[in-house]
Amino acid sequence: MLYEKVQNGRMTETCVFCKRKFPTRGHHVVPRCKGGTEIVPTCHSCEDFIHKTWSHNELRDTFNTVETILADARFQKFQRWLHQQQETAVFWSQRNRIRRPGRYR
């Protein structure tokens, strides 16, 4: 993988979902707790939306490839919204505040 530059300690790379050059992190397409091993570079906005929208079981069973996530109408609507925002805009959800502590089921 070619990394463009480092911003805030993270590598800047193209997100596989929104195609923006943004600081990325490794996103398990199938959640690691569900046996996933494939990691793709994903920006914070796309990863946060994916985990806000689908449970780990849905990501394992139905939305287990980049292509199926990109084909979903909800994700396409989010992408249209994201591309209308400023280039530096980041989508934040409150998903971490409602999760129960402990292992995922």
Can you describe what's shown?
The protein has helices spanning 44-53, 56-61, 66-71, 73-84, 95-98, and strands at residues 6-7, 10-14, 21-28, 39-43. The protein is of the alpha+beta class. It has one domain (6-98). Helix 1 (44-53) runs antiparallel to helix 4. Residues 1-9 have low confidence and may be disordered.
User: Which structural class do you get from the secondary structure elements?
Assistant: alpha+beta
The SSE order reads: EEEEHHHHH
Chain oligomer state: single chain
Helices, by number, come to 5
Task: Give the tally of structural domains.
Answer: 1
Low-confidence stretches: 1-9
Radius of gyration in whole Å, from Cα? 14 Å
For the biggest sheet, the summary is: 4 strands, antiparallel
Helix content: 25-40%
Classify the beta-strand content into a percent band.
15-25%
Rounded to the nearest angstrom, the distance between the terminal CA atoms is 33 Å
Question: What is the 3D shape?
Answer: globular
Sequence of strands across the biggest β-sheet: 1-2-3-4
Average pLDDT over all residues: 79
Number of strands: 4
In short:
The chain is an alpha+beta fold and 105 residues long.
Q: What are the SSEs and their pairings?
A:
Layout: E1 6-7, E2 10-14, E3 21-28, E4 39-43, H1 44-53, H2 56-61, H3 66-71, H4 73-84, H5 95-98
Antiparallel strand pairs: 1-2, 2-3, 3-4
Helix pairs in contact: 1-4
